[in-house]
Amino acid sequence: MVGGGEQGGTGPAKRIQTRTDRPIPSPVQLVRFIDEARKTKTGNQLVVWLKLRALTGMRPRESFHLSWLDLDFERSQIYIRPKDGNSLKSRRFRVVEMHPDLKQALLDWRKEWEKKFQGRGYPHDWVFFHPFHPEKRAKSFVKAFSNARKKAGLPNFRPYDLRHYFISHAIMSGVDTFTVAKWAGHRNTKMIEEVYGHLSPEFRAAQMRKVDIKFGDGTRSAPSQTGQGT
């Protein structure tokens, strides 16, 4: 998450707005976190929720109001629409394409979901439900998330960071900002570019090594042949 701060002097000097980037987890750290999440009492449901958030950038409330009718497995699309209790921040319907890894995770979870409610009349069609009270909607996985975070050695990792993770890694993967903005539910690319486009230090360093600058004294900075973007 990006935080703001100000630096200013006395008198008429203009105050300067500064911004700092909140670190995003690396893919290795996220895998470690997911491995620990699988060991919690919430288990497989939490893992599917983490993958959904990390591969779509959905906001927490959006994810908890997701139903099976919102998932089109034939077209590999997820429909995020306004609903009672979740009018959406933008109040606009949007579509997010389903990543192959997420699609398989959701299909596997649907089988487990059906077994859970088989013979009980299927009280709802929510993708996620309260782990100990299945007839109630899931609102958070706070305890399981916290336990997995501690075991994975990521004390500052928050649920909302999964949205930052998706958006940042989508940009670093070369996806154009207009598409990322559509997936994230923003009206334009401004928010993506100014707030969520915080790329990893490793990625920025790799980009700097590509810079080829000629100097007036006959020397030049040659782009490195090693080190690729992450």
Q: Cα-atom Rg, whole angstroms?
A: 21 Å
Helix/strand order, N-terminal first: EEHHHEEEHHHHHHEE
What is the end-to-end distance? Answer: 20 Å
What's the total count of β strands? 7
Helix content: 40-55%
List the uncertain runs: 1-20
Largest sheet: spatial strand order: 3-4-5
The mean pLDDT is 83
What form results from the Cα inertia axes? globular
Care to describe what's here?
The protein is an alpha+beta fold and 230 residues long. The strands form 3 sheets. It has a 3-stranded antiparallel β-sheet. Helix 1 packs across helix 5 and helix 2 runs antiparallel to helix 4. It is globular, with a radius of gyration of 21 Å. The N terminus is likely disordered.
Question: Key features?
Answer:
230 residues, alpha+beta, three-stranded antiparallel beta sheet, 9 helices, globular
In a few lines, what is going on in this structure?
The protein is α+β, with helices and mostly antiparallel strands and 230 residues long. The protein is 40% helix and 10% strand.
